[in-house]
Amino acid sequence: MSDAYVKKSLAMTGGMLTHLREYCVEHITGLVLIIGSIYRCFPGHPDKARKPDISFIRWERIMPELSESGRICIHPSLVEEIVSPCDGICVVD
Question: b/e map of 25-51 (b: 16 or more CB within 10 Å)?
Fold first, then answer.
């Protein structure tokens, strides 16, 4: 993967993160999470998880248990994922 592609991907993710956070702060709509957030939202499959680049959960969907455990066991309201040309379908799916 070229340095130019990496820089473009980071710029796209950073731009989306900035705009989404600004909107959420202005409109008090929800929580924006970044790379590293792990969604374990597959009932009956605790070993399955998703880690999107950026995600958003509306405030009314956030349960008290989330803040206590740090585990995210619900589907995000919105995700943003930058797909690299070297990502195979098994990586993305």
Answer: eeeebbbbbeeebebeeeeeeeeeebe
Residue in this structure with the two tokens 């969604």, named with its chain if needed: 39
pLDDT at 26: 94
Long-range contacts of 67-73 (CB under 8 A, 24+ apart): 71/40, 72/33, 72/37, 72/38, 72/39, 72/40, 72/41, 73/39, 73/40, 73/41
| pTM (predicted TM-score) | 0.75
* Class for the domain spanning 3-92: alpha beta
Torsion of CA 75, 91, 13, 46, to 10 degrees: 30
Q: Residue for token digits 């929580």?
A: 31
